What we know:
By secondary structure, this protein is an all-alpha fold. It has helices at 3-21, 25-37, 47-58, 68-73, 83-93, 101-105, 112-122, 125-131. It has a single domain (3-131), classed as Orthogonal Bundle (Butyryl-Coa Dehydrogenase, subunit A, domain 1). The radius of gyration is 15 Å and the shape is globular.
Amino acid sequence: xxxxxxETLKETLWDFMKxxxxxxxxxxIQQVREVRAKGPSQWRQPPIIVELxxxxxxxxxxxxxxxxxxxxxAGRRGGGLTNLQYAECCEIMGTANHAEFAAEACNCASPDxxxxxxxxxxxxxxxxxxxxxx
Length: 134
């Protein structure tokens, strides 16, 4: 990604952190506890994560980890960042009290990263539209 475009992306990510992540950190903790109290299930998500994922997509902060070649294969869905640029984004996302809160909201937490790379390379167009929006 070109330097000016990357600076704009970082500004967008910082704004997302300030307006969406930091103000919702306590709610996230509360909702995680509520979800866990219902028993084990890897498929249930705290409602705040579901909400923030849509907001991250709308801001172009979805699947930031997809490298340049994978993003190109997927029709530029995803970050299209260099590893160094993605590392800077990870530093920003890591400033939340819960280390994976922002990463999860932006679909950049494990195991999503590997799954999305497989979809970018081998998924159908329908799967790419659903999961690699951006």
